Amino acid sequence: MKDIMKLKTTKWLAIYLAMAILIIGSAQNVCAGFAPSRIGPEGGHRTEDLRKIQSVIESKMVGERLTQLGFTAEEVKGKPAGLSDDQLHDLAVQLDELKVGGNVEVAGILGLVH
Q1: Are 95 and 51 within 8 A, CB to CB?
Q2: Which one, 41, 58, 111, 114, has least CB within 10 Å?
Q3: pLDDT class for 74, splitting at 50, 70, 90?
C-alpha cells in the first residue's frame, strides 16, 4: 500500500513539475524598463530655449560671422520667435551638444537662419 501511495505521489509531483516547466517556459521574455516622460516645450521650456538661443546669437563670434554673411541683427533676433515649440526645443538641445570653439556655433545658427 505504501508503494502505491508513493507511486501516486511521485506521478502527481512529476505532472505538477512538467506543467510548471511548460507554463514558465512559455512565458515571453519581456525586457521592460522605465520610459522617460517627455515634457514638451509647452511646459514653460519655450522661454528657457529662447534665452539659450539668444545668448548664443549675441556672442561676439557668432554676431560677427552673421554680419559678414549679410544678416542684420533684427533679422537674426526675430528668427527664433517664428519657430514652432518643437523646432525651438530641438535647436536648443542641439546647441547644448555642440562643442565650444571654432565655427561650430556659427553652423548651428546658420541652420536657424536659413
Answers
A1: no
A2: 114
A3: confident
